Amino acid sequence: KGLPESGLTSTISESDNGIRVAKHTRIYAILVDYRNFILSLPEEQKKIRDLRTIESIIRERGESIIRFAFAFVPHHEVGRVSIQMLSNVYHYDVIVCPQQVGQGAIKDADTVDARMERLARQIIPQVTDIVIVSGDADFHRLVVDAWRYGKDVMVISGSQALSSRFRELEGIAGITIKEL
Q1: Which of 48, 94, 103, 131 measures 20 to 30 Å from 180, CA to CA?
Q2: Which residues lie across from 108 on neighbouring strands?
Q3: Which pLDDT score, from 0 to 100, does residue 17 have?
Q4: CA distances from 58 to 55, 63, 66, 90 (A)
């Protein structure tokens, strides 16, 4: 609650009581671990960096609203990523994640995983579907938690970056996996 909606929600209609959607409409949150997404793409696609692929996968599932769309970018990637393109062209809210700091020392890691999980837990009650664009096994717990809340969960990743933990869940929990 209180989080900004993505600019991708233009298909919804307003009512006196707020936002109304048809019962069959799926309401999505897309969470992109941007560096993992780019690294998981086949070599010939790495320069494309086109997030419309994610949206087209969602649209294939029927009538949908993308309520939240976040791209989590590590601080050291900011110079290589077009923040304006992510925000203005794809309408993703970009969250730049700083390095981890522990016991007064800066570690050689970013805070993408922790921030992405924290935000996802806040928005789970507001959506019907969670899309995690990352094959990183660190998001395994988030996928299980969203599924336990009754949310449909889709993991989108390049095959070489997809953790086997997600493949195990696909068979057990009915998690959908889409490989790029």
Answers
A1: 94
A2: none
A3: 42
A4: 5, 9, 9, 14
The total number of residues written for the chain in this structure: 180
CA-closest candidate to residue 149, choices 179, 122, 170: 122
Q: At what angle do helices 140-148 and 164-173 cross, to 10 degrees?
A: 10
Query: What are phi and psi for residue 127, nearest 5 degrees?
Result: -135, 165
Cα 79 from Cα 65, distance rounded (Å)? 31
| pLDDT, tens digit (0-9, with 9 covering 90-100), for 39-90 | 777 766 655 456 788 888 888 888 888 898 888 787 777 776 677 778 888 8
- Ramachandran sector of residue 104 (left: φ over 0; alpha: ψ -120 to 50; beta: rest): left
- Taking the C-alpha atoms of residue 32 and residue 24, their distance in angstroms, rounded to an integer, is 25
Question: Nearest 5°: CA angle at 172, between 171 and 173?
Answer: 105
Q: Which ranges of the chain would DSSP assign to H, the alpha helix?
A: 34-40, 52-59, 83-84, 112-123, 140-148, 164-173
Give the predicted TM-score (pTM) of the model. Answer: 0.76
Interval 2-8 mean pLDDT: 43
Residues 180, 161: Cα–Cα separation, whole Å: 10
